[in-house]
Design goal:
Layout: H1 3-26, H2 29-43, H3 55-83
């Protein structure tokens, strides 16, 4: 995987998590689940390892990771109340 492919992957994941946050905000759990599946498929490449980056590419990757984490927080904030109503699914 090249450095540009790494950035492209993170950009795709950031876009998907942004869409997931929007779906979570409006309670569209079917769409959220479909997007989650896409996001998991896109992120599988991370498990095989990605090349280290430097300079502007490294900074862009950091920005994308911050976006992904912010989207994750928004998704959790929107879904935790619902998840806590289902026995066995409550988050700790």
């Amino acid at each position: 995987m090249t450095s540009s492919e790494v950035l492209s992957m993170y950009e795709n994941i950031a876009g998907l998590t942004n869409q997931m946050a929007a779906a979570a905000r409006i309670g569209d759990l079917d769409r959220l689940g479909k997007l989650e599946t896409q996001c998991a498929a896109e992120s599988r490449a991370i498990g095989t390892g990605v090349p280290a980056q430097s300079g502007a590419q490294r900074l862009r990757k950091i920005d994308l990771l911050k976006q992904i984490l912010a989207n994750d927080r928004e998704i959790r904030d929107a879904t935790d109340p619902w998840m806590n109503t289902i026995p066995g699914l409550a988050r700790q």
